[in-house]
Amino acid sequence: MVTIDTAFLQAQFAPIFELIDAAGEDIVIRENIAIGQWTAHDPVKAKPNPIRITDLIPGSLVKIGDFLLIVRAENFPVARPLENKDRVTFRGRDYGVINDDANQYSIGGVCYARVLLVRG
């Protein structure tokens, strides 16, 4: 059985975390709690990556104008996966959540970053 060294994994993800901290932008996650009612959480840093035409795959969820937002899991204000009814605000605009991926930056059952696909 392979054991996973948490310190090693932290070192592997450190450049990603540094990028988020240095070049990240403030986003506000607005969690839907009831029809027409949201709870706005404190801002967190995220690294926004706009979707380009070269990123498109026929039949996928992704469209031109969408963003991938990488957020450090330790700073993520919501424990549950975000859903289509939840919202993210950044750059002065409101975006709907298309997908919340907690697996892309997870190893050994530990999630280090969440990747949100948002559309506005």
Describe the secondary structure blueprint for this structure:
Blueprint: H1 6-23, E1 25-34, E2 37-40, E3 44-50, E4 67-72, E5 87-90, E6 93-107, E7 110-119
Antiparallel strand pairs: 1-2, 1-3, 1-5, 3-4, 4-7, 5-6, 6-7
Kindly describe this structure:
It is a single chain. With 120 residues, the protein is of the alpha+beta class. The chain has one domain (6-119): Thrombin, subunit H. Helix content is 15%, strand content 47%. The chain has one helix at 6-23; strands spanning 25-34, 37-40, 44-50, 67-72, 87-90, 93-107, 110-119. The chain has a 6-stranded antiparallel beta barrel with strand order 1-3-4-7-6-5. The chain is globular, with a radius of gyration of 15 Å. The protein starts with 5 loop residues before the first helix and ends with a strand.
Give short descriptive properties of this protein:
15% helix; 1 helix; Thrombin, subunit H; six-stranded antiparallel beta barrel; 120 residues
- Per DSSP E runs of 2 or more residues, the count of β-strands stands at 7
Task: Report the end-to-end length measured between terminal Cα atoms.
Answer: 45 Å
In order across it, which strands form the biggest sheet?
1-3-4-7-6-5
At the first level of CATH, the class is: Mainly Beta
* Proportion of residues in helical segments: 10-25%
Largest sheet: 6 strands, antiparallel, barrel
The CATH architecture can be named as Beta Barrel
Radius of gyration: 15 Å
Number of helices: 1
Instruction: Provide mean pLDDT, rounded.
Output: 88
